[in-house]
Structures are given as C-alpha cells and as structure tokens.
Amino acid sequence: MSQDTPDTESVFTLLLVDDDHDVLAANARFLRLQGIEVVLADSADIALQRLENEPVDAIVTDLCMPERSGLEFAAEARIRRPLVPIVFFSGLASVSDVVAAMRLGAVDFLEKPVEPQSMLTTVLTLRDRYEGVINSQRLSLDLADETVPFRYRVLAYEKLLIEQSLSTHDGQVGAVIEQLQINRRTLNDKMRRLGIVRQIHD
Amino acid sequence: MSQDTPDTESVFTLLLVDDDHDVLAANARFLRLQGIEVVLADSADIALQRLENEPVDAIVTDLCMPERSGLEFAAEARIRRPLVPIVFFSGLASVSDVVAAMRLGAVDFLEKPVEPQSMLTTVLTLRDRYEGVINSQRLSLDLADETVPFRYRVLAYEKLLIEQSLSTHDGQVGAVIEQLQINRRTLNDKMRRLGIVRQIHD
DNA sequence: CATCAATGGGCGAAAATCTGCCGATGGTGC
DNA sequence: GCACCATCGGCAGATTTTCGCCCATTGATG
Predict the structure, then answer these.
(1) Is residue B180 part of a domain?
(2) Is A174 domain-assigned?
(3) Which member of A8, A23, A136, B102 lies 3.0 to 4.6 Å from A102 by CB, making a disulfide possible if both were Cys?
(4) CA end-to-end distance (rounded Å), chain A
C-alpha cells in the first residue's frame, strides 16, 4: 500500500555479486543513483546468505569468482529461489559457459567490461518484468530451506504458480483455468488445500 | 526395454539444417549410420517447409546461413513447433548469439568444427529425452514459460529438485532420499516417470 | 563363492487426486 | 422476480500416485 517504507513489498531489490570490490562498489553506486535498491555480496557464499535472509527479486553476478564460480552459485541460488532471474557478466566466457549459464535459467549474459548503461538497461528490464508479472507476491518464497521435504516444496511451488496466475489476472479464476490449463474443479480443490484466498481488487 | 531395434515404433526424426552441402551430406551420412532418422534442409526456408509437413522431433541447425540466419529460422520454427528441441552449431558465435539462441529454446550450442562424436552424443541425448517425453507427456524444462500448463510446470519443478539433489550428492540416491524425505520407491517411480537418469562420475 | 550394501523395479493394496454432474450462492441486468 | 454469469463445493467414480513387500542386479569385500 504505502510506498516509502524502507522495505515494502513493492520495492524491487537487486543482488549484485562480484569479487572485485572496486567494480562492485562502482556498479552499486551507479545503480543506486538510478533508484535501484541494491544488495551487495563479494562472494558466492555471502550472496547465498543474503539470498536466504533478504528479499531479492533479481541477481546480477560475475561468472568468474574464486572459491565458488558464478555457475555454482547460480545453481545453488536456483534451488533456493527458482524464479528469481539471474544475469551473468564475464570477460572470458566460453560458449559452453554461456550455454551452462542460460541452462541454469540466466536471463542475459553481459560481457566485461560492462557498460553501466547496458547493465542499467538490463536491470530495468528485469524490474519491468517484475512489476508486470508479479504484483503482490514476492518472488522469493520460502522454498529456501533444503531440509524442507520434497512434497512441501512442490506444494509451495504449486501455490506460488497459482497465486501468480491469479494476481496477473486480477483474481479471475476463469482466466487462471485457461492459462494453467487446469480443470476448474481441480483448481478449486487445490486452492482450498493450499489455503489460497482469491481476492478481487476492484 | 528395447535399445537397439533399427526401427522402433516410436521413430525419432532429426531435421539437419546447413547451407554447406558437403557438411550437410557428411553429417547426415554419419548420423544415419548410427541409426538416426535424418531429414535434410540446405536453407532455412526449406527447413521450415519440412518442419510443417514432416514429423520432426529435434532440429540441429547451423547458425550462419545466407538469407535467413539460424536464429531467425529458430524463431519461426519455435512458432510452428514450440516444443521441438533445437541445437545450434557455429564457428563464429558471439556471446550475444549464444544468448539469443538459448533464449529461443536452444538445448545446446556446438562449436565448429563439430566433432561427429559430440554431435552424435548430443543427438542421442535428445532422443533419450524424447523417449522420456513420450512416456510422461512432455517435459521440456521451462520453468519460466507461462504458456506451459500447470501440470507440466510442476513436473518440471519436481524434476529440477530431484536432479539438483542428485547432483549435490554426487548421484547418491540414498542421500537424496534423506534430504528430500521421500520414499525410496516413490523416488524411483518419479525418476522413471520424469526421465531422470542417475549418472555417477567416479 | 558367499555376503553385504545400494539401487532398480514388479505387484498390488491403500491413499490421494482428478473431474464430471449437480445444486447453491451472490452479483448484474431486464 | 427471473434469467444469466461466475464461482464454490458435495458426491462419487475414474485415474494416478504412493509405498510396503519381495526379488534381481551390480559392485565391493571377505
């Protein structure tokens, strides 16, 4: 509802990962000047921690990092937040790196040196998509915990999908049925089982 | 069940696209020797025609072609056959080309000169996946695609969870059972249904 | 060769889910 | 009031999934 609370649900937050502190700080400053909320991490481990503890809506990460590479990090991040878009950047990317990154669900791949402008464009695209697709629901569900049993994780995902579709269609169940190609009766049952409450905002 | 029957009831057909006739013919001969059903096209236009008129289960195409590039072709192909996997190969691929290709749903990207063996491996992978797809409807892993029906998206997520867990535990099924807290029998069934192949790297 | 651990899979009963049929509710327009 | 539309839910049969029991295979070990 409100918009200037420090952590509303409507704030779009970017997780920026780079082991080079100077580049990290410079990029962060630039993005913040453009009004993007940025969270920083100078290693994959830190990034994973932040990902678990803070609401993150998109990730921009370096590919080459000591200890854990960007690819490994992305794989881990994927487990915790399957729907958060990831953008890579790197100077020495081989074709197979790019393929691997895209397979992990990368949205884009920027080449170093990254033009501030092109990074901004990419991030703004992510934000627009975020605004468009998800309004009220936060992308980061608590699918985080690896100790959560398989069944519950799948249920959480089902719930997320339905809530997402509901919110993009303004609570229209009929539209959800059509989009998800799911039987009406089944959808009703699932909503009740998963505790999904349809709310129409007029 | 079966594995080396020359013409199984489920015929897997590959569409091979390359503007270089010699390369095209050579690759086709090689693949046919391996028992792959191959359909040829020496241009994007021809390929699109064939795609419309003949049953094609996978596409392998050159990226650089006169008139219409591999990317444009793939985009068109995508419209006509959204679920057919596409593999690109090219000698001079830029990062942005690879990104564009993967976005168009490419499954892999091979670099020229293409080793016959690696092309074969890729194609065989496609065929295996195709077999799995036959069994459990279709499962082209696309967690982001919103046009994919609910059920398939959930199945894709289940597959992702299991594969992730498998890979973090180095293929140890026992560890997966423990982590996901899933019944061993159920896991086995799901793996078979979802076409998950456990691969141990020693 | 016997044994053990890990895994895959057939069988079948129990459980869960899907889904068509039908009635109920609430809002809108005539 | 009545027709219409969108939605929800009970009921029950069809379908799918789960999972215990039991056995086969494989690879390592004694």
Answers:
(1) yes
(2) yes
(3) B102
(4) 15
Model confidence at A171, in pLDDT bands (50, 70, 90)?
confident
**Nucleotides of strand C lying closer than 7 angstroms to a protein CB:** 6-11, 17-21
For B142-155, write each residue's pLDDT tens digit. Answer: 455 566 788 888 88
CB neighbour list of residue A70: distance below 8 Å, 6 or more residues apart: A17, A44, A61, A62, A63, A64, A88, A90, A101
pLDDT for res A48? 82
pTM for this one?
A: 0.59
Query: How many structural domains comprise chain B?
Result: 2
Q: At what angle do helices B184-194 and B150-168 cross, to 10 degrees?
A: 120
**DSSP character at residue A13:** E
Do A119 and A181 share a domain, yes or no? no
A112 and A28 within one domain: yes
- Give the one of A96, A111, A157 whose C-beta lies nearest to B157's C-beta: A157
B110 and B172 fall within a common domain: no
Q: Which nucleotides of D are covered by protein (CB under 7 A)?
A: 6-11, 17-21
The contact set of A with B (CB < 8 A) is 75, 78-79, 82-83, 93, 95-96, 98-99, 102-103, 105, 108-109, 111, 133, 146-147, 149-151, 153-154, 157-158, 161-162, 165, 179-182
Choose from A78, A87, A95 for mutation: most chain B CBs within 10 A. A95
Q: Percent helix, strand and coil across chain B, each rounded to 5?
A: 50, 15, 35
Domain that holds residue A187: 150-194
The β-bridge relationship of strands A86-90 and A58-62 is parallel
Q: Residues A175, A111: one domain? A: no
pLDDT digits (tens, 9 = 90+) for B4-53: 333 334 467 889 999 889 989 999 999 999 888 899 999 888 888 888 77
Q: For residue B85, list chain A residues with Cβ-Cβ distance below 8 A.
A: none
- The answer to whether residues B155 and B129 belong to one domain is no
Q: Do A30 and A129 fall into the same domain? A: yes
For residue B188, CA distances in Å to A124, B103, B174, B193 come to: 43, 32, 11, 9
Gap between the Cα atoms of A155 and A116, Å rounded: 40
Q: How confident is the model at residue B200 (pLDDT cuts 50, 70, 90)?
A: low
Q: Which helix (H) or strand (E) holds A112?
A: none
- Residues A46, A90, single domain; the answer is yes
